[in-house]
Amino acid sequence: MVMQGDLDGAELAARAALEADPEDADAFTALGLVHARKGDAHKARHMALTALNIAPEDRDAHRLLAQAKMQERPIIGYWQRFSLWLSLGGGLRIIGVLIGLWLAYRVGVALLDNAGYSKASGLLQIAWLAFVAMTWVAGFQYRRLVERDLEKAQLDPNY
Asked: pTM for this one?
């Protein structure tokens, strides 16, 4: 229902599912998607975290959390949008895009070197290395973000 734009119907269905089973991670995710579509990133994030507390490996809840983070932080969200777009396309899209980017990088370096722009070629190589490093770091960064959001608050026993 969310994908067809029926947000009110989707919200009613999610709330009915939660009344029937308060531990239904999919219902929390669906409700979070409704909030995300309505532009309420805070509530969408809360619903994603609730779903992840119930089912820590739920891919849809992880996508919802990423979507909520993208709405909260639009500049940082560009990388997450790219990653999400890649992951939603499956392995073939990921491999195709990365091979295409690598070929464009290699052609760019060769053309810049042949034209005598060795500094620009060096900058392109540094940019490629930064891109590769970001692809490695982004997964760890996302995992750390989820773990930080999911950890429970603990009171100091001496307080």
From this structure: 0.57
